[in-house]
Amino acid sequence: MDIPKVHYSVLVGFLEILNDLGGKSDIAGIASRQGLELDDLLPILDSGEMLGLIQVTAGDVSITEKGHLFIAASPVARRGNKPGSL
Question: Could you tell me which residues come within 8 angstroms of residue 48 by beta carbon, excluding any fewer than 6 positions away?
């Protein structure tokens, strides 16, 4: 299964928003606060879950331990020390 095409900065931004909300939130609430349609969030949620950065359960999304480590890492470490790589 292919990971949905989501720009790196969009995924990182979503993780940072979720982290600012305490690491867990309802999906509809995030969509409302950010002025997004749920259809806009689906690729972000799918890619984040496939990468193991978030977990989606019954309309809620939460950051996994891997996601917390990713957010805490420096931008260079996030890219694996290679410009342009995820």
Answer: 11, 14, 15, 54, 61, 67
pLDDT at position 39: 85
Is CATH 1.10.10.10 correct for 8-71?
yes
pLDDT band of 74, cuts 50, 70, 90:
low
The pTM assigned to this predicted structure is: 0.81
User: CA-CA distance, 37 to 23, in Å (whole number)?
Assistant: 21
Task: Annotate 42-81 with DSSP letters as a single string.
Answer: HHHHHHHHHTTSEEEETTEEEE-HHHHHHHHS-HHHHTTT
